[in-house]
Amino acid sequence: MAKITDNTRNEVKEIVLDFFAEECEVDAEEISEDANIISDLDGDSLMFLELIEIFKKKYNLNIELKTIGKYAVKHPVKTIGELIDMQMLIIEHENNILDL
After folding, report:
1. In terms of residue numbers, what domain contains 88?
2. I need a surface site. Which of 27, 36, 49, 53 has the fewest CB within 10 A?
3. Rounded to a whole number, what is the largest CA-CA distance in the chain?
């Protein structure tokens, strides 16, 4: 588990916004936390997997993709804000996310 600091959410948000800005060819400042990943940004599930890998490396996370998948089935992510919140839980709880 990575240590959560006051700056962690801002850092996660910046990474998510920069990632979707590059992948979806939009300006990061135009992406709000309410933006729907699929309908507003034309995002897809492969982008989510790529983003997970970025966070696994950055925060040295030990979490299996199947664990994230099981969690996501019960807690689907539709917006950028929901994605940021889920990523915070993954960073904080790693494989224990299913116990939440």
Report:
1. 8-99
2. 27
3. 37
Task: Map tokens 């990632």 to a residue.
Answer: 19
DSSP line for 49-73: HHHHHHHHHHTT----HHHHHHHHH
Q: What is the pLDDT along the chain (100 residues), one digit of tens a residue?
A: 667 887 999 999 999 999 999 999 999 999 999 999 999 999 988 898 899 999 999 999 999 999 999 999 999 999 999 999 999 999 999 999 999 8
Integer Cα distance of 82 and 51 in angstroms? 14
What CATH number does the domain containing 54 carry? 1.10.1200.10
Residue 24 lies in a domain: yes
Q: Is the pTM of this model over 0.85?
A: yes
* Alpha carbon distance 57, 59 (integer Å): 6
Token pair recorded at residue 67:
């664990």
For tokens 């224990």, name the residue.
96
